[in-house]
Each structure stands twice: as C-alpha cells, then as structure tokens.
Specification:
Blueprint (H helix, E strand, L loop, with lengths): L5 H4 L1 H20 L4 H15 L2 H13 L4 H6 L11 H14 L16 H24 L6
Helix pairs in contact: 2-7, 3-4, 3-6, 3-7, 6-7
InterPro entries: AhpD-like (IPR029032), AhpD_core (IPR004675), CMD-like (IPR003779)
Protein name: Carboxymuconolactone decarboxylase family protein
Organism: Nocardioides immobilis
Length: about 140
C-alpha cells in the first residue's frame, strides 16, 4: 500500500488533534506536573508504540529541558532503576497502563503519589501521545540522521 500522510489529506482532523494536544498539555501543567515529566510520559508511550519520529522529537525536547542521558537510557525499564521519584514512577505507570490496556503485569502500588487531577492529566496526555504515535507511524514520517 502507498504511504499516505493522513495529516495532509485530512488537515482538519490533524488540527483537531493538535487542539486536543494543547488542552492536554495545559491540563498537565495546571495539575502541577512538570514539563520535563510530560516529555518522559511522551517518550515512554512512544517507546511502547515503537514510534521513532516521536521518540527522536521528545528525547530532544527532554534534553533541551535538562533531562540526563542516564535517565533517558533507563526509561524503558524505569521500575528497575532508582532514578525516578514516586510521582514520576506513578506517571510512567499510568502512561503504560493507558497505552497497554491489558498490560497490568508490572503494576506497582503507587497510591498516594498523585492527586485525581494529576492522574487524569497524565492519562489525557498519554491518550493524546498514543494518537500522535499512530499519526506518525501510519503516515510513515521520515526519521533519518
């Protein structure tokens, strides 16, 4: 099948997703969650989905916001490291649960780390990131050096 850039063919749908993304990012910030944590959530969702385009973009954004190479290196196995705070661990668990709807095998007890507002904001950000991953993957966005 021919590669089809779905955002270019249906720009109104793309713009609606961009609007939803903007609202989810605002809710994340209003819930008191850091912009760097937002990038970690986006990267983790993109790792699970295998979206090279989004991984490159959000890894660069995370580095620009001060993220360390060590934390980025262990993000795919965050639960085995001591690099992440309880809030970050809870956010990453929520991102994984939202992305892998049936994968609760690594679920950890994270109650009390986040407010309901924060949980909702993280879930919305993960939902939007999942949508962006699908747009990029289905449109075959180029990723090269």
């Amino acid at each position: 099948m021919e590669h089809v850039n779905i955002g270019k063919i249906h720009p109104d749908s793309y713009k609606q997703l961009l609007g939803l993304s903007t609202h989810a990012e605002a809710a994340f910030a209003e819930a008191g969650l850091s912009p760097l944590l937002a990038e970690l959530v986006k990267i983790r969702v993109s790792q699970i989905n295998g979206c090279a385009f989004c991984l490159r973009a959000h890894s660069r954004d995370a580095v620009a916001k001060g993220e360390s190479a060590d934390r980025l290196a262990v993000l795919a196995a965050w639960w085995e490291s001591q690099y992440f705070s309880p809030v970050e661990e809870a956010a990453l668990q929520i991102a994984e649960d939202t992305t892998q709807l049936t994968a609760a095998t690594k679920r950890r007890e994270l109650a009390g780390s986040l407010t309901a507002d924060q949980v909702s904001a993280i879930r919305w950000l993960a939902i939007v990131m999942n949508a962006w991953n699908r747009v990029a993957i289905q449109s075959h966005y180029p990723v090269s050096a």
